[in-house]
Design brief:
globular, single chain, alpha+beta
């Protein structure tokens, strides 16, 4: 607490029970038995088919809106897993999918991932969007062709400040996990996620697939990745805020971690779809930041620092979860794309209203990105972008940063309109993975999935360790020796967990998917503790020098 800062509640003891607060009532508003809906913070979801240009008979009855629509208060969603996925629209669509899937082996041996189809005929299959909260379907949308375009909208409603809308165009058939940060990702949330992964991992080990759903498998992995991102970013922002002498409060934010599709079209109609990897889209990260000394430049510096960290974590968290010694996952984010461009000798430009007329024509990037840059600069923003695209692991595009020069707030973008990262290669499985009916394919070989769970459990263990160390150091009830003892115990516990994950990886994966990566994980656990202690000493030194 003396290093990173703390706040204390001043205790006052009275000989009698106070009936009211020690303040004079200035004005009294309306009295309610329950909070009115208009005064609640809410999050609304809507998934609709992309509008078509077909002729509509004005005399015909108005079409029925079957779009997926639902609204929930934020307390109803707090700490719960939210996923958006697709299922076959009808039994006939399910039958078509099943026709492309391998039949169960007569000898009862597991179906191997290599036996699953690498693509599906999108033009033959219709699917419907389903929104789940903690695994339960709460809303269903209109059917759409597999690989077609849906418009997904989320609206955060604040009774005091109005609404904020986030709109994304998504391919029908993706699987999304929506991670909410409503102020802070607590140790309890991380513990709950770890327990859920541990339970699923144990069931997979025991070949217990009864009542196991796609949301237990794919949904949990995607959601855990999104929440780990929020947890790591929150901890980094917390330390940075203390070091820079600002108060920073996270207000309701969201991050989407999802599968991607490759859609092959003929005359604008989806023909075939195949797996396109994964992507992290942190398109709504909100903070309220105030400098303790009133210096607005400090706030701008903090916001830029936070933005850079948020972009870096978009690729690094994904790589942590889906990499191994034998199969390295590679992600691209804004800051990583700019770094690669710089390393390759590609010029990096900063565009503003004074130089955009001369610099923009020199850029060898997509017209869509150029239009985005032009609009941003017209609005008074400053844009940082590479002169040309880069190619990285099959992905071609550029990263660009849009900064508000007055506040330091920014959007960290990559080609395609994503505020996040694209994972170009990852060991995640076939595109049909989440379309399978568990009751029919209970003998599917889940060794690779179990390896992913083991890896995710290990990464989440390190995130929890990092956060636990911060909380321990801020606990004013503990002496310095008690804090160090607690930190060492946490590190040893993390090491033990990592060894357990390593053993699982070797048992279930003869290809050593995890391999020696878990040994590195043990070192990282200790490294986290040492790094944080080093940071704390640097902060303390800076404070002493200021005094």
């Amino acid at each position: 607490g003396d290093v990173l800062g703390k706040k204390e509640i001043v205790k006052q003891e009275f000989p009698y029970l106070l009936g009211t607060l020690p303040y004079r009532t200035a004005v009294k508003g309306s009295t309610f038995t329950t909070i009115p809906d208009t005064l609640r913070h809410k999050l609304s979801f809507r998934v609709e088919n992309e509008a078509s240009n077909t002729f509509v008979d004005p005399e015909a009855p108005a079409p029925v809106d079957n779009s997926l629509t639902i609204s929930k208060s934020l307390p109803e969603l707090a700490g719960k897993k939210i996923t958006l996925s697709y299922s076959p629209a009808t039994p006939q669509d399910e039958a078509i999918i099943n026709a492309y899937l391998p039949s169960p082996h007569a000898d009862g041996t597991p179906i191997q991932p290599s036996e699953l189809p690498s693509q599906l005929p999108a033009y033959l299959i219709n699917v419907k969007p389903e929104l789940r909260i903690d695994g339960q379907v709460v809303a269903t949308g209109a059917p759409v062709g597999l690989g077609g375009t849906n418009i997904s909208t989320m609206i955060f409603s604040d009774p005091a400040y109005g609404s904020s809308q986030i709109t994304n165009y998504i391919d029908a058939g993706v699987y999304q996990a929506i991670g909410l940060n409503l102020g802070r990702i607590s140790q309890e949330q991380l513990t709950s996620l770890k327990a859920k992964l541990e339970a699923t991992k144990t069931r997979l080990q025991n070949n217990d697939f009864a009542n196991m759903t796609k949301d237990d498998l794919v949904g949990d992995l995607l959601y855990t990745t999104a929440m780990a991102y929020h947890a790591e970013l929150g901890t980094m922002n917390y330390i940075a805020a203390k070091a820079m002498n600002v108060n920073a409060i996270t207000v309701p934010s969201e991050t989407i971690f999802a599968t991607k599709l490759k859609v092959m079209c003929l005359w604008g109609i989806p023909r075939y779809i195949s797996s396109g990897g994964l992507n992290m889209d942190a398109d709504y990260l909100m903070q309220v930041v105030k400098a303790k000394d009133g210096n607005s430049d400090t706030v701008k510096e903090y916001m830029i620092n936070s933005g850079m960290a948020s972009s870096a974590l978009e690729h690094s968290v994904s790589e942590q979860f889906f990499s191994s010694v034998d199969s390295q996952s590679e992600s691209i984010s804004t800051v990583k794309a700019l770094k690669i461009a710089n390393d390759q000798g590609v010029p990096i430009y900063s565009l503003n209203q004074e130089n955009i007329a001369t610099v923009l024509p020199q850029l060898q990037i997509d017209q869509q990105v150029k239009a985005d840059i032009q609009n941003a600069v017209n609005a008074g923003k400053v844009v940082t972008v590479s002169k040309s695209n880069i190619t990285f692991n099959g992905w071609t595009g550029c990263g660009y940063i849009i900064i508000n020069p007055n506040t330091g707030a920014g959007a960290y973008m990559i080609s395609g309109g994503l505020s996040g990262a694209v994972i170009a290669s990852a060991s995640f499985g076939s595109i049909t993975d989440y379309l399978l009916k568990q009751k029919e394919y209970g003998n599917y070989d889940y060794r690779l999935r179990l390896a992913n769970y083991a890896k995710a459990f290990g990464v989440l263990n390190k995130v929890a360790l990092f956060q636990s160390i911060v909380e321990t150091m801020l606990d004013e009830k503990l002496s310095d020796s008690e804090k160090m003892g607690s930190i060492c115990l946490s590190v040893l516990s993390s090491m033990a967990a990592d060894r357990g994950v390593a053993a699982i990886g070797k048992t279930i994966n003869p290809l050593a998917l995890l391999g020696g990566g878990l040994a590195v994980g043990v070192i990282l656990s200790v490294s986290f503790a040492i790094s944080l202690i080093f940071i704390a000493h640097q902060i303390q030194l800076a404070m002493v020098m200021e005094e």
